[in-house]
Amino acid sequence: MSSPSTQLETEFKQAQQFVQSGPAESEPSNEQKLLFYAYFKQATEGPNTGKRPGAFDLIKRAKYDAWKKLGEMTKDEAMKGYIANLEKSSPNGRNSLQTKVVQPDLLRGKVAVVTGGGSGICKVITEYLAYHGANTVIISRTLSKLEQAAKEINQLANNGTECFPVNADVRDYKALSEAFDKALKKFGRIDILINGSAGNFLCPASQLSSGGFKTVLEIDTVGTFHSSKLAYDKYMKKHGGNIVNLSMTLHNTASIMQVHAGCAKSAIDTMTKHLAVEWGLDGVRVNSIQIGPIEGTEGFSRLLPKEELDKYKKTIPLQRFGQPIDIARMVLFLVSDAASYITAAIIPVEGASQYTTNNIYGYPEVLQMSKM
Prior knowledge:
This protein has helices at about 5-20, 30-45, 60-70, 75-90, 95, 120-130, 145-155, 175-185, 210-240, 250-255, 260-280, 300-305, 310-315, 325-335, 365-370; strands at about 110-115, 135-140, 165, 190-195, 240-250, 285-290, 345-350. It is an alpha/beta fold. The chain has two domains: about 5-95, Acyl-CoA Binding Protein; about 110-355, Rossmann fold (3-Layer(aba) Sandwich). A seven-stranded parallel beta sheet has the order 3-2-1-4-5-6-7, with helices on both faces. α1 (about 5-20) packs across α4 and α6 packs parallel to α7. The longest helix has 30 residues, at about 210-240. It catalyses: a (2E,4E)-dienoyl-CoA + NADPH + H(+) = a 4,5-saturated-(3E)-enoyl-CoA + NADP(+); a (2E,4Z)-dienoyl-CoA + NADPH + H(+) = a 4,5-saturated-(3E)-enoyl-CoA + NADP(+). This is 2,4-dienoyl-CoA reductase [(3E)-enoyl-CoA-producing]. InterPro entries: Acyl-CoA-binding_prot_CS, Acyl-CoA-binding_protein, Acyl-CoA-binding_sf, DECR2-like, FERM/acyl-CoA-bd_prot_sf, NAD(P)-bd_dom_sf, SDR_fam.
């Protein structure tokens, strides 16, 4: 029988997964979101002893204050507070925790490499794979950020899995090859590859430099090929495996100020089909996820005009923005045996937004303004 402390930790971990799973029957208030943050920090790090952020950083300041208010609250009390806050913000949440669609150890013994896994959607994907039993390797350019992300991923999973950070630029084939060698030396296998490294910005085609266009294609398209080829050559050719490429819907209908990203993602989707056909004989499945508007990410805040967000959300058939966990769930499905006969698939996870929200920047006015 589990000890009371162990049982509480299990319920706490389940509560975290439910909170991350996106909107429940009602969206938590800002106050409840701050409480989730504060209870989590208190339960995992103890009392807040840090320095209060500056007055101009309002979000970090609010988080700091919420955590500070918990004072010397114990770890167990903080975990109970987190669970209670879930029950308050989502009355059905506690019961939902007990209904497992996917077994927590689904990927036990597997190893997943995630490029771009130190931040944003790819970090949540890594957390989700780790939570379901996979050892993970996150690859990006800045080691310090990767090390912090790995620490947080290990802390969240808390199930004996390990997240291993390796810095490399996906554009540099030699450096990336060395990163894959380190992953194999560490874990001895690479069962799953998630290609998530990407670069993007808004720019009309008429003002886009050759260098800017080339950079995005090198990170997104060439980087995806580099890592896919390395995973195949070094392990999957003899052992099989799963590759999931992260794409977007930009090229399906054409979006203004995104010719560089649209071309890069279109090439990735085409690459997905070619690799699936060629490598399927070796037991390698290759699929692509077309990502829609995902709330709470750097790309979301940088690429979408803040003053248009409410209006934009109302045009989405499902009446909400996506959450990183929506993408993570599709990734988990695609790399699982439940998708064993799915390959060369290009799967949109965007709430049908591509059919109703195209060119939200104000067409053609924004292009006319850019020429002034």
